[in-house]
Specification:
281 residues; alpha+beta; 6-stranded mixed β-sheet; 7 helices; 18 strands; 30% helix
């Protein structure tokens, strides 16, 4: 018997009742537009069917996405819940293009201290320049700036900061990363994604209030005129398995605040991104 036959039949029946022509495909189905069929037109979409109860390996999703991309089809994830209702998601690779044309870090070399779980920059001029020019950190007062761990590592690596520990010992990138990883287990994963985003010319800030690692701005001209952030981004390893109810909640929350939900995938070749959003068929 075909694996997940019941789920696939539920999706097949739903699509047929909506007026689509459906055939088996390299994922689960390929779907033709309403009024079209083989010999009259080309399929436009590939459908990948999953149960809400079954974990979804990221590698399986990426294989289905690659199969669709190779023939220029839209990739759709169809999730069947316990009441046989179907939620459709569009899966694609986004184009992250930042509009920050100037370098996001100034030509300074400031002293900073690694405290409990963040870093403080003491110099007033450096603090103001970092905050105003690149939207780094959050001012403690008019003279000092506090930075997150990922911001601090990025600026340390760029030579913008000299960071000392509480014993006033200078820290290199490896020493800093080791200590930061003891505080935050996902630090290295988040840091790699943060660096990639900054290098792409966008401005990542914490997405904690939205339940994700980052919220992202394509451009910030001034901290006094902060625009709407376009994306929420959550960092995941290549061996990640999605728990579909958790994924659904994240996407629903992102949509409710007019953002797209992106997942940043750390691979051996760098960072890849996928955009998953609700879709009406």
């Amino acid at each position: 018997m075909q694996p997940s036959f019941e789920l696939k039949y539920i999706v097949y029946k739903d699509l047929r009742e909506r007026g689509f022509y459906v055939q088996p495909g390299v994922t689960d189905f390929r779907v033709y537009p309403r009024g079209s069929h083989p010999g009259k037109g080309a399929a436009k979409q590939f459908i990948y069917v999953r149960s809400e109860r079954a974990p979804m390996p990221l590698r399986d999703l990426l294989r289905s996405l690659a199969a669709a991309e190779n023939v220029r089809k839209q990739m759709i994830l169809a999730i069947v819940d316990e009441e046989s209702d179907i939620t459709f998601y569009d899966v694609k690779r986004p184009r992250l293009k930042g509009e920050m044309k100037e370098p996001l870090y100034p030509d300074i070399n400031a002293d900073a201290t690694f405290l409990e779980d963040r870093v403080v920059v003491w110099d007033e001029e450096a603090s103001n320049t970092l905050f105003e020019n690149g939207f780094y950190g959050k001012p403690l007062d008019s003279q000092r700036l506090q930075l997150s761990l990922v911001e601090s590592r990025y600026l340390l690596e760029k030579g913008v900061l000299n960071i000392n520990n509480r014993q006033n010992e200078s820290m290199d990138v490896d020493a800093f990363s080791k200590m930061a990883s003891e505080i935050e287990p996902e630090f290295n994963l988040k840091s790699s994604v943060y660096t990639d985003l900054r290098d792409e010319g966008v401005v990542p800030k914490t997405g904690f209030k939205f339940g994700s690692h980052f919220r992202v701005y394509s451009q910030v001209e001034s901290p006094t005129k902060i625009p709407h952030s376009e994306y929420l981004i959550h960092s995941i390893p290549i061996d990640h398995e999605f728990t579909l109810p958790v994924m659904s909640r994240a996407i629903r929350l992102a949509n409710s605040v007019r953002k797209r939900m992106l997942y940043a995938i750390l691979t051996d070749d760098g960072v890849d991104y996928i955009d998953i959003g609700r879709l009406k068929m």
